[in-house]
Write a structure and sequence with these properties.
Helix content: over 70%
Largest sheet: none
Distance between the termini: 64 Å
Radius of gyration: 20 Å
Order of helices and strands: H
Structural class: mainly alpha
Strand content: under 5%
Number of strands: 0
């Protein structure tokens, strides 16, 4: 019984941790995209153009 509870508790913790990590990661990503969106778009376009050409 204690093993089952421990496994469930660990699983819940890991799921919660993964969820928090995803939220944290996407927050960072959104901030970066907002901050560098315009410059990043120009760089992405030029890189894509160089690959296409």
């Amino acid at each position: 019984m204690s093993d089952d509870n421990g496994t469930i508790r660990t699983g819940t913790l890991s799921i919660a941790f993964n969820h928090l990590w995803e939220l944290f990661f996407f927050d960072i990503l959104n901030i970066a995209l907002c901050s560098f969106g315009h410059y990043g778009m120009q760089a992405g376009v030029s890189i894509t153009a160089s690959f296409v050409v």
